[in-house]
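Tokens for Glyoxal oxidase. Go.
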Amino acid sequence: MASKNPSFFFLLLSVTLGLWSLIFPASSSSSYYYYSSKDMASVDEGDWVLLQSSIGISAMHMQLLKNNMVVIFDRMDMGPSNLSLPNNTCIQKPNQPPDCTAHSIVYDVASNTVRPLLVQTDTWCSSGSLIPNGTLVQTGGYHEGDRVVRTFTPCDDSSCDWNQLGVALGERRWYASNQLLPDGRVIIVGGRRAYTYEFFPKTDPAATFYMSFLKETCDGYGDENNLYPFLHLLPDGNLYVFANKRSILFDYNRNRVLKEFPVIPGEFKRNYPSTGSSVLLPLRLNGDVLPEAEVMICGGAPYGAFNNSNYKRVFVPASNTCGRMKLTDPDPKWVMEVMPMPRVMSDMVLLPNGEVIIINGAMNGTAGWEDGTNPVFNPVLYKYYLPDPARRFVVLSPSKIPRMYHSTAILLPDGRVLVGGSNPHEKYNFTSYYPTDLSLEAYSPYYLKPRVSTMRPSILSVETSDGTVLYKQVFAVTFQLNQYNPGSQIFVSFVTPSFTTHSYGMNQRLMFLEVIEVHQLSTYDYKVTARGPPTAMVAPPGYYMLFVVHAGIPSQAVWVKVV
């Protein structure tokens, strides 16, 4: 088995990719951009910090809340965790010994501390969304938890905990995906052998709606390659749905496919277990004009990769391609690019300045128990806006911790990326080659370096009523800036906190607001006047992180509520 030394992997990469291009040539029917070893060697030294060597559980699911707390949870069927529940609390399930350990925590970003939470039914491979009031609605899971709806409402003390609702989902939701809608409902799509969608809140507890696209994109049980479908709400209010290699524009109110987009080129599947990742690239707002919407999908594995790794112990190379497609174009087409290394099970996180970080994952195999190998220690920064594709990818400094199956990453309000998890085993296993990992670490991108601190805005106030931004409202943000670069624009970005699991950030969304003017108030103080999002289809109601960005350097975020 290969060494886990990051330098060894980086050296090995040059040889691997040379062979890759011979074994898996590009499709002649699409545009590909390739990168040389010279491009790949460009490393920007961000900073990794180990926050907690153990939080007691493995961070399989993560959700940032409006009070800068992060809810984290794993599973209930993998044995006792390393964190006890308080007050001798235990869960007793039929025919099982009492479990007196926590399988969920809340992490306090400011104090770097954790508090155990009590979840009563199995949340394994579940989904979630924040609703407009900031409450996390978490849906499905496994065994007795596969139709359960749970909520977590943030609080500023230790009184809040999981609440399991009496209403059940209409169908089993295991490996499903969620998206917040313009009217504040949540749509829940798919799951293993669940070719339907439904809504929360539920007007009819049994109501589900058949979606043939989900069945059509299933490759077969075990190697489905359509689980955790990628969902992105488009500015016209319809839903973009991607599964396997195909994607559609879907009217969820009328249960109608409005358009089928071109199949993404190449042999690679993109959804679980051939797990890639997806983001909607930043929306640039300008008055009432609907913004251009472009999707980006990276990584994955070829057909049969799961069966090869699971049954034959053959770990085929992952995909090293990304596809971008402008969904709002009259004739949309995929434009393919090649990453510096192959990746499966990686997370894609939108940074406050609109850049994308691709982090975690492996270079061989698929998602699943013991089904991946060769961890990718180096994140990659993607600068989507550069005209030259050969300059868009930048290889970043490596972590020392393999983050494989069941790892997660989310954006924090201070601009760091919170990273945790990795448990490619049926139970907790701390002695295997890729052990269960209970740690939390943070990656600080280049924009948090001291050398650029004078160019970092610091928000002083947001001139709205109680932190609320109305649709189309003109409002101002005052900020301090020690060194203004006259050649750089000032941007105001809104970023949603995503529910992240299995390499997919559900509800992840970033928009650059229309900036009306920037006015200097004093030597170091400035005021930027911006216009709120035009509609709930562009920006679903709820809580957003507001950043001021100068010369690509973001401020710390201030929370605002969009209504």
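DSSP finds four helices and 46 strands in the chain.
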